Hints:
47% of the residues lie in helices and 13% in strands. By secondary structure, the protein is an alpha+beta fold. It has a five-stranded antiparallel beta sheet, with helices on both faces. Helix 8 (198-208) packs across helix 10 (224-238), helix 8 (198-208) crosses helix 11 and helix 9 (213-220) packs across helix 10 (224-238).
Amino acid sequence: xxxxxxxxxxxxxxxxxxxxxxxxxxxxxxxxxxxxxxxxxxxxxxxxxxxxxxxxxxxxxxxxxxxxxxxxxxxxxxxxxxxxxxxxxxxxxxxxxxxxxxxxxxxxxxxxxxxxxxxxxxxxxxxxxxxxxxxxxxxxxxxxxxxxxxxxxxxxxxxxxxxxxxxxxxxxxxxxxxxxxxxxxxxxxxxxxxxxxxxxxxxxxxxxxxxxxxxxxxxxxxxxxxxxxxxxxxxxxxxxxxxxxxxxxxxxxxx
Length: 255
């Protein structure tokens, strides 16, 4: 019976993916659904010309992260610092017959020196990763999905990967990816969701759905005062004074 409930939860998470319309909803879906079955702290989606095998390959990025110092803007600001890492992982994916793979214990000497060299500094706080590639045969394009975790072992069953990854790929292909800002601002962090906690994003989601503070408290099993405290922090981070302003800013930037 417990096994049936497990699969029911997975299918429920998959079903929720069809309603995602923007990056904020995608981030919330990852943190409050996918993460139960595919635990991770950072997802870096990377696509472009991998065949040049150089840092001039003009790779594109989209990041969903719950770590405040890793987001799409920091990747863009790294002056190709992430390209060498992604090109290396792409080569490993090819060598693995285009099958997904895991690298555990990134802090150990067993991880080859070459990869340690190309690993961006901000990612050194993470201890394991999983790489999943999707080939677009018609468009001769490849997209790499690299999940990083603070856990030393990245453990996810084949069956879960086969069910969830196609839907992650589908969602990211249908929503507008985040673009670099000309001048980094706090908005860049907000765009990735990294400036807001998972709980704050949940509250914004339910506000967008028209729920009152009392209803949100009931849904999240917290007190109304806690909801108000979270909202106060959201307003401070976004420099707004009303809930409608917070929702409007996020929706306008992410649509």
